[in-house]
Specification:
Helix content: 40-55%
Number of strands: 3
CATH superfamily: Creatininase
Length: 233
């Protein structure tokens, strides 16, 4: 249930019937040959599919995140961490004013994780509210499914290559890329990072079968639905 497909009266009715709502968070950053908006596409889609049978509103995805390592790749846009924190806090304030108190943040970008600290501070100022931070792609059951299919999985590799994150007329390389030396990578400036990383894939195959990807997706949707639906104090 996308808020984009609701009016204010419908949102008001939902918040009176159910305290739960969802905010997807993504990023606009390089993903090798995939869409620059992979993280936003996947966070919003998994949230919408998970929420559908529960009739829980999904607010519009936050399309920009914290991604300073990739700023030398054209199309990448990073927010300052302080800006991301401020945006999330402002959106949470609006969701609470709308009547929601049990909010799940469905995060699709690992770089956004430091902003979780701002959510903890927000909870201190908003007693009676509850917020879950859910990294959908590395939640236990989803990541276990990824590892069972192929343990060599990373940023911009096959594990993010879904039918809805591919671009038309862009063919994926057939070879498996060697894994990145992440420790060395993290100590470099963005220009040196780009020179070391090349096309953007951290390592692994670029694409696997749709059957593999849909099997992962089914687990991710079910696991996300469980997080949204259950465990509220």
């Amino acid at each position: 249930m996308r808020v984009a497909e609701m009016n204010w009266m419908q949102v008001e009715a939902r918040s009176r019937a159910d305290l739960r709502a969802i905010l997807p968070i993504g990023s606009t950053e390089q993903h090798a040959g995939l869409s620059l908006c992979v993280d936003s596409i996947l966070a919003e889609r998994v949230a919408v599919e998970a929420a559908a049978p529960l009739a829980i509103p999904v607010f519009p995805v936050v399309n920009y995140g914290f991604t300073p390592s990739f700023v030398d790749y054209p199309g990448t846009v990073t927010l300052r961490l302080s800006t991301l924190c401020a945006i999330l806090v402002d959106v949470l304030d609006g969701m609470v004013r709308s009547g929601f108190r049990h909010i799940t943040l469905v995060n699709g970008h690992g770089g956004n994780s430091p902003a979780h600290g701002a959510i903890l501070e927000w909870l201190d100022r908003n007693r009676g509210c509850q917020v879950k931070w859910h990294n959908w792609w590395n939640a236990p059951k989803t990541f276990a499914k990824v590892q069972a299919i192929d343990p060599v999985a990373s940023h911009a590799s096959w594990m993010e290559n879904f039918p809805w994150t591919r671009l038309p007329n862009v063919a994926a390389p057939s070879e498996q890329k060697p894994m990145l030396d992440l420790q060395r990578f993290q100590q470099l400036d963005p220009g040196a990072k780009k020179a070391m990383l090349g096309d953007g894939n951290y390592g692994g195959l670029y694409q696997r079968s749709d059957a593999d990807m849909l099997a992962i997706w089914d687990v991710a949707v079910e696991e996300t639905r469980s997080v949204i639906a259950e465990g509220w104090a």
